[in-house]
Structure formats: structure tokens, C-alpha cells
Design brief:
- The protein is an all-alpha fold.
- It contains 14 helices and no strands.
């Protein structure tokens, strides 16, 4: 698929997701009535402050957060996969998401009162701990299969620590932690959205600098070192960029599962002859699209009860990602 066609498909899906997110629910708002609804005005000219609050203060920040979170997870997933030369190297399999969730959940269970601005720092520390443990134990990614096995072990250990915390929690905290661990956009406001921007501003320049190095790492460790790249430092830098992208999202939304797996697969499948530099923005775009689309059934499928968006991204993302992997492998085999 050409870049122009992919852009048209992506924009169309994002527009459909945005209209569904803003228009559907209670109350239902027609697309043509969205500007008036944001001003709290009914089609007949009567004022309706409730509709304006629902659309402008509940649905719109939730949509923006879904787009930003998805873009961060999609970009982080591609960085990890390319740096470790393994398309299955996703945050959920490397201890990054579990570590971030543990850092946020521990103070809640232990009744430690902390300001909201500290939560991203706790998630950052937990994600860095999980990722560094995986890289250290796996020899900094010299064997892609060893990275996955080690990451699965580290993730299992961190999830066991989360289970211990859940046993210690009271009933109210247990419900909050359970919903958080599945990844949820429920009851998010503009404050949650604005809390992500400082981290994004820090991560974007590093992401731009990191992208060309990923192309060199794809050649293998020996070739990359021959070209002057210090492989261990490059992998640590890629992990640091991924952590800065993932941790603030996990602090706000919880670990929204498998977006970092599906979005890079879509970017590669639709532009198979490109490289990491070209795949990176597409992976971010597809990640935003996946989360925004998944949040529609999460909000409406069992209304008035909301389901966690992470359950939908995992339910739909894993089979789709595996199918893309298989078709990609089949095409490479035919080409060979």
C-alpha cells in the first residue's frame, strides 16, 4: 500500500473513531450538532449545559487521551522491537508495563498519600526497573529469543508482586486496582491529558534521534559495531525512550495491552519495504487508531457498564497481530 493510500485509510478510521466517541452514548449527538453541543446549545436553540459537559468535558478529553496513549504505545512498541530485533518484543513481554503498573499500584495499597504529579515518576521507575532487569539478564539482547524468555520471567515476577498487593488491598482498592490493571479510560479528564504533555515533549526529540540508530541495529550486533554503534548503549537508550513513552500512559490509563504489538505490525505490513525511520510515525498513527477504535465498544458494548479498553485491545489485537506476522512470514518465504 502506498503512503498516500495508507494515510487516507488511517485518517478515515481516525475520523470514524472520533465521531463515534463524541456522538454515541447518552445523550446521542448528531455529527452536525457537535459544534453546538460543545457550546451547550440544542438544535432548536435552547441551552443544554449537560450536553456540553458530557461532550466537552467527558468524551472529548477521553478521545484525546486515547489518541495520545495509543500513539505513545505504538511508537514505543516499534522502538523495542527494532532495538531487540524481535517482532514479539512488546512492553507486556519485557517487564516494562508490569513494572510501571507495580510502581503506581503499590502506594495505593500501602495507603501512602502522594500527589498526582508523582505517579508518572513511580511508573517511570517501575518500568525502568523491569526493562533493565530484562536486558541485564538477557545479555543486552544478543539473543532475541533469550530476551523474550527473560522478559516473560521478569513480567511473571512483577505480576506476582501485583497479586500480593491485591491480596493485601481492601475491597474498594481491589476494585480500583483490578480496573486499572486492565487499562481503562473511564472518568479521565483534561487534567489527565495535560499531565502527559511534559513527558511527550521530553520523549519526542529523543525518539527522532533514536530512529536512525534502529536501522543500524537491524543489521545485527557485529555489523552495527563495525559501523561505529555501541550496541549496549544504543539498546539502553532505546529502552529509556520507550520507558518515557510508556510509563506516563500507564500511570494515567493503566497497561493498555498489546497496542505496542499490533501497531508496528500494521506499519510494517502496509509499508513492507520501508525501514524504522518510516515505520515510526505510521506505528504511532496506527496505535492511536487502535486505542480510539477499541474505546468505542469499551464504552458502549455493555452500556451502562463500561468495560476496560485494555481488554478490547488484547481481545482484538493479539489475533490480528499474529495473523499479520504469519502473512508477513509467508510473503518473505515466497520472496526467498
Amino acid at each position: 500500500m502506498t503512503g498516500r493510500r495508507q494515510a487516507l485509510v488511517l485518517v478515515a478510521l481516525l475520523l470514524a473513531a472520533a465521531l463515534a466517541a463524541l456522538c454515541l452514548g447518552t445523550p446521542v449527538v448528531a455529527p452536525s450538532g457537535l459544534p453546538a453541543a460543545l457550546r451547550g446549545v440544542l438544535p432548536g436553540g435552547e441551552h443544554d449545559g449537560l450536553t456540553g459537559v458530557v461532550v466537552g468535558e467527558l468524551r472529548l478529553p477521553r478521545l484525546v487521551l486515547a489518541l495520545v496513549a495509543g500513539a505513545c504505545l505504538g511508537a514505543a512498541g516499534l522502538v523495542l522491537q527494532e532495538a531487540l530485533r524481535n517482532q514479539l518484543a512488546v512492553p507486556e513481554m519485557l517487564g516494562v508495563s508490569s513494572g510501571a503498573a507495580l510502581g503506581v499500584a503499590a502506594p495505593l495499597v500501602l495507603a501512602v498519600s502522594l500527589p498526582a504529579v508523582v505517579e508518572p515518576l513511580l511508573a517511570l521507575g517501575g518500568a525502568a526497573l523491569g526493562g533493565v532487569l530484562t536486558l541485564l539478564a538477557a545479555g543486552f539482547g544478543r539473543s532475541p529469543s533469550a530476551v523474550l524468555l527473560t522478559g516473560a520471567a521478569v513480567s511473571a515476577a512483577l505480576q506476582a508482586a501485583l497479586l500480593v498487593l491485591m491480596v493485601m488491598a481492601d475491597q474498594l482498592d481491589l476494585q480500583l486496582i483490578y480496573r486499572y490493571l486492565l487499562g481503562s479510560l473511564s472518568a479521565r479528564t483534561w487534567d489527565d491529558v495535560t499531565g502527559l504533555w511534559p513527558w511527550l515533549l521530553a520523549a519526542l526529540p529523543a525518539l527522532v534521534l533514536c530512529a536512525p540508530v534502529l536501522s543500524v541495529l537491524r543489521l545485527g550486533d557485529e555489523d552495527a559495531e563495525a559501523l561505529g554503534v555501541r550496541v549496549r548503549r544504543a539498546r539502553l537508550a532505546a529502552l529509556a525512550v520507550s520507558v518515557v513513552l510508556i510509563a506516563p500512559v500507564v500511570a494515567v490509563c493503566g497497561p493498555v495491552a498489546w497496542v505496542g504489538f499490533l501497531a508496528p505490525q500494521l506499519a510494517r505490513r502496509l509499508r513492507p519495504h520501508a525501514g524504522p525511520v518510516h515505520w515510526l510515525p505510521w506505528s504511532a498513527g496506527w496505535g492511536a487508531c487502535v486505542v480510539a477504535l477499541a474505546d468505542v465498544p469499551a464504552r458502549l458494548a455493555l452500556a451502562p457498564v463500561e468495560t476496560p479498553v485494555g481488554a478490547w485491545t488484547a481481545l482484538l489485537g493479539v489475533p490480528a497481530g499474529v495473523a499479520l506476522l504469519r502473512t508477513g512470514a509467508r510473503r518473505r518465504a515466497v520472496a526467498a
